[in-house]
Fold this sequence. Notes:
Elements: H1 2-11, H2 23-31, E1 36-37, E2 44-48, E3 53-57, E4 62-71, H3 72-81, H4 102-112, E5 121-125, H5 129-132, H6 136-142, E6 149-153, H7 154-157, H8 160-171, E7 182-190, E8 194-198, E9 201-205, E10 208-216, E11 223-231, E12 245-246, H9 248-255, H10 259-262
Antiparallel strand pairs: 1-2, 2-3, 3-4, 4-7, 5-6, 7-10, 8-9, 10-11, 11-12
Amino acid sequence: xxxxxxxxxxVFPFSxxxxxxxxxxxxxxxxxxxxxxxxxxxxxxxxxxxxxxSIADTQQHTPLITYYVYTKAHRLEQESADVPRTGIYAGWxxxxxxxxxTPVYREANRIIAKPNSPEMIAKGHCQAWILLAWCVDGAIxxxxxxxxxxxxxxxxxxxxxxxxxxxxxxxxxxKGDAVTDSVKIWCGTYGxxxxxxxxxxxxxxxxxxxKVIAYHDQQSGNQVFVTYWMPNDPTxxxxxxxxxxITYPELVAKIGFDPQQIFN
Length: 264
């Protein structure tokens, strides 16, 4: 019976029309995608799943680079699937073999003592939940500590960060005409503002998020390449996104590696 379940799990991932996945399903899902060593940094590990790729510093617990190709088809599937951002579809988990960071986030916000404010620490996605929630597994795996999230101030989370997510949706035709069929997204974190510790686990608050968006503009016929360098600051707003644009060579100089040479 166990072998039959594993076979069915691998061939038929959960859909919303089926019974909602449970904790055992989520555990089995993560077991399918083990991490492996990366030489990007001494504590770096590579994590690859069918939805996005990531290299994270497992000592600092920060994603250094993630990569995802978001498509118009994904957007349409996400709108059709309408995965709820509640319960198991919105629960955070560590990759297999990694620690659970939930107590550290709670400790950080206990110290900050400003719930539901721009100063609170959010679980800041690199590759956004809404862009990955075109199927249940994508939604679940988007909420992965270390490999797709950093400690992000809520002001930044709903500021320039969410502005980049909305841009990607808009480019594929959300509430308007599509500019492109697909968007390549590189995203990561950089630097250290401070750290928080609980139960012997220390997690870094990065100083910046970066995002690179590349796509073929079907209207002009041009290849478009945009780079953002976003301070992890509670005062960030959506309307500051244009101010956060830098050149790609400037980004490479800041972070010390070329994202396109790692994932493409």
